[in-house]
């Protein structure tokens, strides 16, 4: 299994120093295409995507997170730091199943 990064240029460059392959995205269309291609990769175990990139294709990312199996989707802050009002895993589960716990 391998890790794929979908992010801005600086984030992809940083991960490349650790040997992680990535795709630089600047527009929602680029992000959508990169995410679609990454999720189709049979050997993809983890897809790392910045919060800002994920936000541009939120519905697509959320649908994938609800699927069982791999790849696992991991949202990370970019170089600008965490996004204001970002969802926690608790918030996501609450919205997905409609139960507050």
From TrEMBL:
Molecular functions per Gene Ontology: proton-transporting ATPase activity, rotational mechanism
Pfam families for this protein: ATP-synt_F (PF01990)
Keywords: Hydrogen ion transport, Ion transport, Transport
Entry annotated with the keyword Iron: no
Family annotation (SUPFAM superfamilies): AtpF-like
Protein name as it appears in the record: ATP synthase (F/14-kDa) subunit
Protein family (similarity comment): Belongs to the V-ATPase F subunit family.
Keyword Transport: yes
Cellular component aspect of the GO annotation: membrane
């Amino acid at each position: 299994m391998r890790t794929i990064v979908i992010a801005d240029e600086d984030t992809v460059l940083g991960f490349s120093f650790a040997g992680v392959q990535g795709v630089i995205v600047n527009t929602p269309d680029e992000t959508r295409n990169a995410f679609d291609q990454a999720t189709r990769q049979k050997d993809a175990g983890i897809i790392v995507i910045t919060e800002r990139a994920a936000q541009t294709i939120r519905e697509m990312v959320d649908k994938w997170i609800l699927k069982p199996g791999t790849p696992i989707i991991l949202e990370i802050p970019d170089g600008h730091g965490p996004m204001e009002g970002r969802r926690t895993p608790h918030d996501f589960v609450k919205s997905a199943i409609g139960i507050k716990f």
